[in-house]
Design a protein that fits this description.
This protein has helices spanning 3-28, 34-56, 67-91, 94-101, 104-116, 122-139, 143-148, 152-176, 181-196, 212-240, 242-247, 252-264, 270-305. By secondary structure, the protein is an all-alpha fold. Helix 2 (34-56) crosses helix 10 (212-240), helix 4 crosses helix 8 (152-176) and helix 5 (104-116) packs across helix 8 (152-176).
Length: 306
């Protein structure tokens, strides 16, 4: 299996479970506070990862010099990100939330250019614009509604989540090259807990309303959307890079719409189907562009050696 294939398979897993996680979170928000949801899911996920690492014979050793990077990644990519996302869902529904998250590829390209001196060309810009247009079709949100819905705080929160995620991806890149995936994710989850757990005692949680369905949503968030999702996202960043991995986040609205249909009976409209096709085209173009670049680089290397 090629490096590219491993990356594509890896990124599809978090795309699916994170797409479903919007539905899980929206169900739980009337019962638990935004940060309490994050605290519970990552406490369970941290314990699960610890058991997985111990039983698999993995290592939990990290260099002292890297500890601050793990702490910052956990604080920004886990605690701060889910503060923004979960709070944003309180004010806007899952569909516009996924639209805001489509800003991730734009922010990834910009920050990667600043941090890693990545060259931004016209094709990169066109691919990002195409993906944003596709997501706009999917959610069926017109500009007037977007600007005058009275839910500006929700949109601002989702933009904060998008920025937090891009910073987290960039912070994780040097760690991915040095440590096993499970070790990275475990410590990032672990160091997010001091920022999340205090809110369990502060927020107005309705513990008496937690039933079987709520527990099922919590279990999915903790195991699949947290431990499994972040593990495979780390693999994707290693094989595909930050920008291309982030481009696949545009699949989230497609997953959310499909799962909403099966879970709540919400129908899929023609403009959502068209938007899905546009998004898939944009992501495919990104993959082909990177593959072409790798091929050209390989050919130049061969010519140089000969």
């Amino acid at each position: 299996m090629t490096k590219k294939t491993k990356g594509l398979i890896s990124i599809m897993i978090p795309v699916f479970v994170w797409g479903v996680s919007y539905i899980n979170t929206e169900y739980l928000l009337p019962i638990l506070g935004p940060m309490t949801i994050g605290a519970i899911r990552f406490l369970i996920a941290t314990l699960l990862l610890y058991i997985m690492i111990r039983f698999s014979g993995g290592s939990l050793k990290i260099d002292r010099a890297d500890k601050p990077l793990f702490i910052v990644a956990g604080a920004i990519g886990i605690a701060l990100y889910f503060y923004f996302e979960n709070t944003g869902i309180l004010y806007i529904s899952a569909n516009p939330s996924s639209l805001i998250m489509s800003a991730i590829p734009v922010l990834s390209i910009i920050l990667e250019a600043v941090v890693y001196k990545r060259r931004i060309d016209l094709a990169d810009f066109a691919i990002v614009v195409l993906s944003v247009v596709g997501v706009a079709f999917i959610v069926g949100l017109d500009l007037n509604t977007f600007m005058h819905s009275g839910k500006a705080l929700g949109y601002l929160m989702m933009l904060g989540a998008a920025l937090s995620w891009v910073i987290y991806s960039l912070l994780s890149k040097p760690l991915v090259e040095k440590y096993p995936y499970l070790t990275i994710v475990y410590y990032q989850f672990f160091y997010s807990l001091p920022f999340l757990l205090p809110f369990v005692f502060i927020e107005n949680n309705q513990w008496h309303q937690i039933g079987g369905e709520a527990i099922a949503h919590i279990v999915f968030l903790s195991i699949f959307a947290s431990a499994v999702g972040f593990y495979y996202y780390a693999r994707a960043v290693k094989y595909l890079g930050v920008t291309e991995s982030s481009m696949f986040i545009n699949f989230l609205p497609i997953v959310t719409i499909l799962m909403n249909y099966f879970y709540t009976g919400q129908t899929i409209t023609m403009h959502q189907f068209i938007g899905g096709c546009i998004v898939i085209s944009a992501v495919t173009a990104s993959s082909l562009k990177q593959r072409r670049g790798e091929t050209v680089k390989a050919v130049k290397t061969v010519r140089h050696r000969s």
